[in-house]
Amino acid sequence: MNDDLLIHNLFDVRGKTVFMTGASGFLGRTMTRALLANGARIVAVGVFDRFARFRDAVRNEFGKDRFTAYEADLDDAGQFRTVLETIAAREGYIDVIINNAHALGTKTGFNSMSGLLENASLDQIQANLSGGVLWPFLAVQILGRAMIERRRGSVINIASMYAVIAPNPRLYDGTSFLNPAGYSIAKAGMLAFTRYVASFWGQYNIRCNALLPGPFPNTEERTENSVTRGDIFLERLQERTCLNRVGKPSDLTGALLFLASDASSYMTGQALVVDGGWTIT
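Given the sequence above, the corresponding structure tokens read:
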């Protein structure tokens, strides 16, 4: 039997070093644990507080050597660049880059009338572009050098279904929720960046794909962007999907492991949508 056909070999990430932003976020926590559970090692960047607590938790669960944490304020481009250069020097080769971080609060216009196109400030648009374009650009540019030298690597950009469709304003009528103009702009830019990297770095055997989550509301904790179970907004999200439910963070695990592993070795420049069928109707 050809061992390459076995599922545990096809989706194998054992021994891979994965760089990740947003590792302690709502979706990032599950992504991180899925990669660790399947044998990968994580190198993560974030602002210490909740990130530090998450670091300690996963180290206790999987081992200290499996999760390396670097502190950096991603909004400080100079600081983020310095930390990336440090990671490149200390870690050497990174197998997989996952650009997942994006601020989802009032700074980027979420759940605020200030996020509407007619009200949005340049600072707010820039804050969205930082998550969608600037942070991924810096990570890929700096950590990608070793990928070019080694002639292999995978970049996964966590975008959104709103990179390919527009939010429906009627979803938000009578609620306190709003998806801001800057977010769609930024995630569409991330998708364009994905295709550019795929086109220009394919010659180095580096793949770059985007994972586009659909409705994945945070119902697990109380944050400025969480949704309470039973809320009319949650019901509207559920009814809009073909599967009549919203996504759980674990629903992204299969797609993530596919893109991080050699199972997707002939796939690049693509947008993999995981949305319960939202974008097909």
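The chain has one domain: 3-273. Try to locate this feature in the token string yourself.
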